[in-house]
Amino acid sequence: MTAVHRGHVSRLTRRIVMRANGVGLSVRRLLLAVAAVASLGGLMDAALVAPASAQSFTYNPLPPRPKPPRAANDNQMLVQATEVDYDYNNSRVSAVGNVQLFYNGTSVEADRVIYDQKTKRLHAEGNIRMTDADGKITYAEILDLSDDYRDGFVDSLRVDTADQTRMAASRADRSSGNYTVFENGVYTACAPCKDDPKKPPLWQVKGARIIHDQQEKMLYFETAQLEFFGVPLAYLPYFSTPDPTVKRKTGFLVPAFTSNTPFGYGVDIPFYWAIAPDMDLTFSPRITSRQGVLFQTEFRQRLMDGAYQIRVYGIDQLDPSALAGQPGDRQFRGAVDTKGQFALNDKWVWGWDGVVMSDYYFFSDYRLAQYRDPLGSFLYLPTDALSQLYLTGVGNRSFFDARTMYWLSFSGFQNQVPVVYPVIDYSNVLNYPVFGGEFSYKTNFVNLSRDSAVFDPITTLANTNSLCTTTSADPLARTPSQCLLRGFPGTYTRLTAEAQWRKSFTDPLGQIWTPFASLRADAINADVSNQPGVSNYLATGDTQAFRLMPTVGLEYRYPFINVQPWGSTTIEPIAQIIIRPNETYAGKLPNEDAQSMVFDTSNLFSVDKFSGYDRVEGGGRANVGVQATTQFDRGGAVKTLFGQSYQLFGMNSYAVQDTINTGLDSGLDKPRSDYVASAAYSPNSTYTFSVRSRMDEQTWNVQRFEAEGRANFNRWSVSMMYGNYAAQPELGYLTRREGILTSGSLKVAANWVVSGSARWDLEANKINQYVVGAGYVDDCFVLAANYVTSYSYSAGSTPPVLSHAFMFQIGLRTLATSSGSSSSAGLQ
């Protein structure tokens, strides 16, 4: 572009394409200098900002701006203004009136922009708005910078970032090309009030001065205060934090507070060390009032194909007597745990979890968060910590998983916990038909060992293990109704392979026929140690067995559909006939993975109703039932299922006693099973109701009943589940069990929620667990408090332990989250 004379080029809006030469160079410097303001706005990802003397943060959004026009190439700049002047005498370039500059994805708008070539300073004023390529918007009234961006100031600065954080300052001064000082700054991560944008946000941080050191990439705050709804609640005379360009920075993190009887009160003071871009270390000593300092260190590293971490704990207890008679009654206590996972390619991953502790109650006593109650409460209930090494692969229609596992028992009886050296699963469904049907196969291999037998007395006569461990020569030898052997001592190896085929077709009448066939083979080796009482359950010594189970069957369905103006109903009789030989070695081999047996409509039509591989169903069986589904045109559905199972011929596997009486008292342990029924009703998305039941096939007495209802409205939700279970003396449940589990939440205000839950044992007429909590949650703030009470039961005559836990949590988005917890336990 050639230079023009002093004065107005035109009173009309002009668009001028400028290259980096002549006047274009000056305007380019003008734009780049304005872009330097982005470095001021870039600080908004940082934490605390704002002064005691600053006004409350307000937000007054401007109308949406048009998209910038496209330049011919990235080196071109577009300038649009009502007037563009060049003053030869004073060497000034001015753009006046609705000035818009576009360059490399950045746009600048102002009422007036002047660049002085003599002083090499840029001056912009009036409704300045700059939008960078990342979506960050910077507002100002006056901007004055040198063209090398080393010195200058901005008046009435306001910045809105893409991650919904906002900052304002009365003035920002830049010096030495490195330091920027914000005067009377205000920072918040909360959105402005829609009804009243001038209303203070939920929280904001003010600071008299905020200093940004670009070389150190640090923010330093002087005389800061934290406000909620415009009311100051906390004052900090001085603190510092990394600027938002730093994702990881060495320094102290937010402390956490906790308490528990064994160690008293404690405060964690974590220090974070960013060792390198791919690794870090967090050192978090906990200073306790009773036991001294608990050292905690966590090392993490991310590699090209995965990541791993290692945690180390240790404490030299000052008062071990506080844990007298307990596993923690020792001077030194500690632990190491680690985990990692790595990808071999897009289908295969391998990894590990590992835990080693000085004693099995260490994590529980010191309330270490990674081993909290798996239900999410903060009771830190003792559970088993798992160490494992695994390899997993997932294909389009196949799955492979191999792992070795070691459970660290929190019960203290480590010799009764098995070590699984490997357990390997593989399954595959062929993606092409075989004889017109679907063909699949699966395999399972397991090898495990246990040092000591696990006996479980199931009658009041067998209230100690002494009766369970008697030998068969003893006159009080164990009988099936006195004890269970939940885990045998010795080594167990099993290889299972199964192939399945099925095909469905529909005849002209609409009947659906599904023939199926399977062949399963098990090779088993059991080396059972001859410990006291074990021979009453299993043959001791080395036992080899080969088990073959061929199965053929046919499933029949005949859906009847009735269509009405209000909806449609489908009634579908279902029948299954399964033919196979008897289960060989029934009850004579260890049962480690098929100990659970619940018969209901969910497994009525399962070919094998055992939960694992160690038992296999045999004999001829018929499963029959009727299913009805109603769909309403205006929404909602009702689904019901009722049925029964029949042992047609051969031995009933569920009536055969094994080491833990699997199948007994299940409703399947007789020629005609108990009746099972279920119903589910969802009138709309608000309500759901479901009922599941098992009734005695002769008396129709309820053996198992569950009813559940849920309602979910805009402001509140509630759920209730009622359970009633008959006595199962063969499994150790000598009396009927009955209880109610309820939970609910109420949205008392826009972001305030109150919730609670309770579990009521109707037989004992006692509420044995309840949780009460309240919290505030929105896009910038979290405040929550929970109180949990629960009974922990143990075997024998030991009374239940009542545990109490309280947790408080507060979080400010982009700043920090802090929490505290307190718990106690006592006998009831």
UniProtKB/TrEMBL annotation:
Q: Which PANTHER family match?
A: LPS-ASSEMBLY PROTEIN, LPS-ASSEMBLY PROTEIN LPTD
**Coiled-coil ranges from the UniProt annotation:** none
Which organism's genome codes for this protein? Answer: Bradyrhizobium betae
Q: Which family would the database say this protein is a member of?
A: Belongs to the LptD family.
Could you tell me which residue ranges the LptD C-terminal domain spans?
332-752
Q: Does the keyword Signal apply?
A: yes
Q: Which GO terms describe its cellular component?
A: cell outer membrane; transporter complex
Q: What is this protein called?
A: LPS-assembly protein LptD
The UniProt entry lists the main location of this chain as membrane
Q: Which GO terms describe its biological process?
A: Gram-negative-bacterium-type cell outer membrane assembly; lipopolysaccharide transport
What does the UniProt entry say about where the protein is found?
Cell outer membrane
- Annotated keywords: Cell outer membrane, Membrane, Signal
The cross-references to Pfam families, in alphabetical order and at most eight, read: LptD
What InterPro entries does the database record attribute to this sequence?
Answer: LipoPS_assembly_LptD, LptD, LptD_C
Listed under subunit, the entry gives:
Component of the lipopolysaccharide transport and assembly complex.
